[in-house]
Design goal:
- The structure is a homodimer of 211-residue chains.
- By secondary structure, chain A is of the alpha/beta class.
- Chain A is built from ten helices and six strands; from the N terminus they run E-H-E-H-E-H-E-H-E-H-E-H-H-H-H-H.
- In chain A, strands 2-1-3-4-5-6 form a six-stranded parallel β-sheet, sandwiched between helices.
- In chain A, strand 3, helix 3 and strand 4 form a beta-alpha-beta unit.
- The longest helix of chain A has 16 residues.
- Chain A is elongated, with a radius of gyration of 21 Å.
- Chains A and B meet through helix 1 and helix 10 of A and helix 1 and helix 10 of B.
- Chain B binds a DNA duplex (30 and 30 nucleotides) through helix 7 and helix 9.
DNA sequence: TAAAGCATCCCTGAATATGGGGTAGATTAA
DNA sequence: TTAATCTACCCCATATTCAGGGATGCTTTA
């Protein structure tokens, strides 16, 4: 008998999954959680007698990536399967070096889901074709953009720029000289290969540096 | 016997729903589709012998809103239930004046799903609390922002601004005087209540005027 | 330890954006 | 048929950005 936990903030999804898996005689669902913390709490208080955790990559509070890391740290014997919308390709990248046992797109069908679960429970890993493709694409894109790394200060500055602060205001906010902010703005413009504040704002918004 | 169609681009979701509904003796799923076109095609070629269409608000090609409109136009007797992630609050607004018979959040549980389906099949409408709240919020926000309407020219200008064009370049692109563009920029800044290009860029991005 | 990167500050000059005005014809709506 | 709105244009003054530099001390890395 295999024991499984499902974590997803969309109850309709966990209920659906539960319904699908209830037809499998040797699979028992021990918990359905709506966020990562619930999963961790359960594992800690139940001596981690769980074989597999199925989790969405996208959850409030603790996301799938963080949850996976915690599980693998504290309970390395537990297998993990991550499901995601295909839209989250960017996030998939961040999972690359975690030790997830499988990725599956929510576009996958019941049949593939069951295959993945069985493969993982048998000790192998399973990665759906679509996710593999998405990862390849992400990798490829990552290589073509030679990895732009912004320093903390630069991030602060670009964040405030996107928030419509003027140079002087940014300087006042960060207790720096106006000239310093101008230097940062310049290096941001050349680093990100944009032309002006509009480009910086766009970069900030598209890369989730604001809000 | 009630006949139902499920449309969602995430197979795992439709499979889950199917599994849940398969336990209901009087509900028969006639089709699961991954986009709106498939639903329309089916309805047209089957004399529309369908009672209810359950559809995601967010689908490629034809989205839930458009699909709903088409169904209500061509087959007014068919009931429709729209499910959505809570994140799509903005899109919900656009459904307001369509004649959807129910909205449900994907955060809803099996129990609520079944209640909604039965309520709708019995001839009433069903709107989940969460969605009602989200709609209220959307309405409220809509009233507090007294409806900003940009003219076509203004939209063109703000689009180009967000694309990092300078005033002179915009003028050249649109065959207008530099002064004209400056006027537009000014009126945009005051209309949208922002302070500078960063604010305009942000507005353009957040309101889908670019890409 | 030397090199590289980071954070901080400064200067100059040209280009551009911002904020304040205003004019005027064409179109649209009350 | 007015009134309002949209489109298009112009001027002026000031503020800010952008593009070149260059400088210092401190930390991290090779």
């Amino acid at each position: 008998m295999y024991t499984v936990i499902i974590a997803d903030d969309h109850a309709m999804f966990t209920d659906g999954l539960k319904s699908i898996l209830s037809n499998e005689a040797d699979i028992q669902i021990k918990l359905t959680a709506s966020d990562g913390q619930q999963v961790i709490n359960y594992l800690r208080s139940h001596n981690s007698d769980i074989d597999l955790v199925i989790t969405d990559i996208n959850m409030p509070d603790m996301n799938g990536v963080a949850l996976n890391g915690l599980i693998k740290d504290e309970f390395p014997h537990i297998k993990t399967l991550v499901v995601s919308m295909l839209e989250d390709t960017k996030k998939i990248k961040t999972l690359t070096d975690s030790q997830v046992n499988g990725y599956l797109s929510k576009n996958s069908e019941k049949h593939e889901l069951l295959t993945a679960i069985r493969t993982i429970l048998n000790g192998s890993n399973y990665f759906s074709e679509r996710i593999k493709e998405a990862m390849m694409k992400a990798m490829f894109e990552a290589k073509n953009t030679p990895e732009i790394i912004l320093t903390e200060r630069e991030k602060e500055v670009i964040r405030l720029i996107a928030k419509e602060y003027t140079t002087q205001e940014i300087a006042d906010t960060l207790f720096l000289s106006k000239h310093t902010i101008e230097s940062y703005r310049k290096s941001l413009i050349s680093k990100l290969q944009v032309r002006n504040l509009a480009g910086l704002t766009r970069y900030a918004l598209e890369n989730g540096l604001v809000d």
